[in-house]
Amino acid sequence: MLRAKNTTGLVFFPAFDWAISPTHPEREERLLYTQDQVLEEGLLDIDGIVELKPDIVTVEDINRVHFCVPDAEAVTTESHFISAGGAKTIGKAVLDKKIERGFALVRPPGHHANRVVHGARGFCNINIEAVMIEYLRATYGVDRVAIVDTDCHHGDGTQDIYWHDPDTLFISIHQDGRTLYPGSGFLNEFGGPNAVGTTINLPLPPETCDEGFLYAVEHAVLPILDEFQPELIINSAGQDNHYSDPITNMSFSAQGYARLTEMLKADIAVLEGGYSIEGALPYVNAGIIMAMAGIDYSYLREPDYNPDHLRQPASIKAEIDKVCEDALKLWANRHELTQALRSRDGSDSRSRQIFYDTDNILENQYETIRFCDDCAGALRIESSSSYGANILGIHIPRKACQACIDQANEWFDHGEYGNFSQIFLQDRVKDRYLIK
Amino acid sequence: MIIGLDAGGTHTDAVLLGAEGILHKVKVPTDSEHLFDTVMAALDTLMADRDKAEVARIVLSTTLATNMVVQNRLPEVGVLVAGGPGLNPECFRVGEEYHVVSGALDHRGREIEPLDELELASIGRELQAKNIRCAGVVSKFSVRNPAHELRMVEILTPYVETIFMGHTFSGALSFPRRINTTYLNAAVYPIHKNFFEAVNRSLKAQGLSVPIRILKPDGGTMDIKSSQGYPAQTILSGPSASVMGALASADSEKTSLVLDVGGTTTDMAILLGNSPIIAPHGIELGQHKTLIRALHTESIGVGGDSVVRIAEGEIVIGPDRQGVAMAFGGPVVTTTDALAVLGQLDAGDKDLAKAGVAGLAEQLGLTTHEMAGKIFDTACRRILLAAAEMIETINSRPVYTVHEMYEGLKVQPDQILVLGGPAKQFAARLDVIETELEYGAAIPVPVWQVANAKGCALARTTCEVTVYADTARRVLTAQGEEFQHSLSATATLEDVLEIATDLVKVKAIRQGANPEYLQIEITEQSEFNMVRGFHTTGKNIRVRAQVKPGLIHGYDCETGQLNRPDL
Fold this sequence. Notes:
The complex is a heterodimer. By secondary structure, chain A is of the alpha/beta class. Chain A is built from 12 helices and 16 strands. In chain A, a hairpin with a 4-residue loop joins β11 and β12 (361-370). Chain B is built from 14 helices and 29 strands. In chain B, strands 3-2-1-4-11-12 form a 6-stranded mixed beta sheet, sandwiched between helices. In chain B, α8 crosses α10 (368-395) and α9 (350-364) crosses α10. The interface between A and B is large, with 49 and 44 residues.
């Protein structure tokens, strides 16, 4: 009789009746064969593996994380509420100690959704991991969290949401942004002035194989995690690094994903991308579940798997070694770098343009952060979209100091209504969301 | 007239049903070592002085092989499994003669590794040498393409007598459950065949020549001939007999919690109007999880004969049984003794019961009467709490579409139907004890003592067919039907629905259903575009159709009468 070494919870929500469009990669068919494989393997019958029914998140859950323009309902569908709800279910079950680890196999994904949401970017509308994490923080008082994003695309949305948060370590391993959407995620993106080093990017060259990935996990991700000492480790488990994925160029295998899962020992995994719906997803997802549960996965392989074709050239190895070395250096020097970043007094600003590829929206953002050594800092975002929305979002972080609370409230109170169509206050200290 | 017989673990009940309702009922103790004698004795008693020629239908429910399965006393059978990539197939080993062989299919039924025919023949010779007569062959994803299982049978045929194929038992996915199901069918086959052939011969000799039907765990029936192909479906039909018995008096507007209070356990189930809830996967028996379709029933170790103890100042009931109640000369206090003390039992020795309960009462500083009341209440509460857990399980079943998530039905019973020997007493007590659970009135069903035999008598023939169509591969398979044919590339969901409906119809009639009263329903239908690159290459269509479990046509739940000329 098979028994899971670690009690593992699964939420399976394939959303068989929802899609962006009939031929879109993120469509109804996406988790069909994964479900077939998981059911046929009998994984849900294994002692110690439990299947949980997803919750539905509330608008309040979303508003803890996002400024949705004009509101959460307008930029989401029912599917998003369930998909984020699936992640929330796993998070709750882990913290209630019903399970030791869990995996939310849900769609649609979320890691390209930024703090401000005007529409869909990279098939994502709301950031399902962040919605889960902030629910867990508000409800269970979880503090330090690490997110390891192993999707092939840079987790730019999650990076944006946690850019200023020193208590959230965000590490993204992905295909080099020069060669893939969304084109970001370089080593020089390492967090805002209040959270230097708690964002770490590991851009890997195209054609990276199991060996390179696992090297990066062992030599960069694990040492940094070890030092950060998170209370929870979340894996944004995108599966598009697979050698058969149609929209990326990496050479990772199901065995590699399973090994990565075993090494990372994430408490919670949330499915992100992965569009090789037949050749990869059934095997990769089964492998991750088996590895999470601590079950032998050595018999698992793709039908066309040939390890000889997945050997990494030396040039790639050298490049990966260098990326890991630089990331570790950056992490070690994060305190010195903080001073360098705070060149001005009091606060820092940045202007950005963000393109919503899925919905064809262009957003202009002007962001101001108050320098703070005591908290994540009061945050002010002016955002306008090519559709004419023009909003002001004020964020009071979870453990805000009085000075930052005062600053944020002043921004909110003095926000001129005439200049903005909406003004939002995301007050995480009082766990409230105000709109004027 | 119809005969319904339910051979339970403690008692065997039988009823004779005519147009005006129940004509005769009997209850005899079950001798599980000599089940054949028990069944024949019950039928003899039931039919004494009656005209056997008028019997038009016989339905039996026996738990013939249940104990053999639970106690691992099944004969050795050959099990050959072709797994391919995934979990190590050794994890699913059943028995000594379990062989993992080469050959693999993928999730769409495409071959990814061929069978090794020499290897198969050599295993065949080995089985023959060991005089193993039955075998089962199972391949992963065989429900998407039975080719490997069919070929394995061809190769093994010279060496073994009877071979079962995994894909014939269910269209549902689960390789481990398919292995268990196939194994159980092969292992149970000889005893099933001998038993029912003997019953058939015996009844025929007595002038009862109508085809015998057997109750299945899904609350439906099949005739003996079809049952040879699915012998394991006789296992664990007991709880479904109770559900069908309750169904005979269920209110179509209400949600009912069914409680069958037996000697050792209480079986629980839910009826949504006239439809019992089906279990999502299949029955579990001992360590075997199977694909055998079943009603969702759960058992709790609280029954009339459950042992009553005091532990840490609290009353603990069951889950074990050490014989009958003290009132009937048993060794320890049971719930039935509490009923005796409360003056709610017609039979037995009340003084013996009192003496026993008094001993326990002393430990808690209560009077004997108070103690008896507390025992009874504890039993009722335990049952209601277990029912609440079962309802919670049903309500927290995962869903896979947005529609189901938002439209999901929440089960909330508004009445309790009680069956079994002490049904009347339990219903009365359940009605008055105070709990936080609100289930509405508790009602003993009519003829509660033999309601499950009545359930057998009235159960209709059920069956299910799962059809899987892949228009890109142009194949359509209907599992359990050994049906496979080519498909047009432009086939639609409607075409597949029609095929599924026709197949269910044919299958039901073959298994003994009345062709005029088939209630077929589609339980699952989905259609997915298969897009490769950015082009739709075909459709992946999945349809499941069934004859709904329910009562035979012509039975009136309100009057208890049977209005059908052919019965």
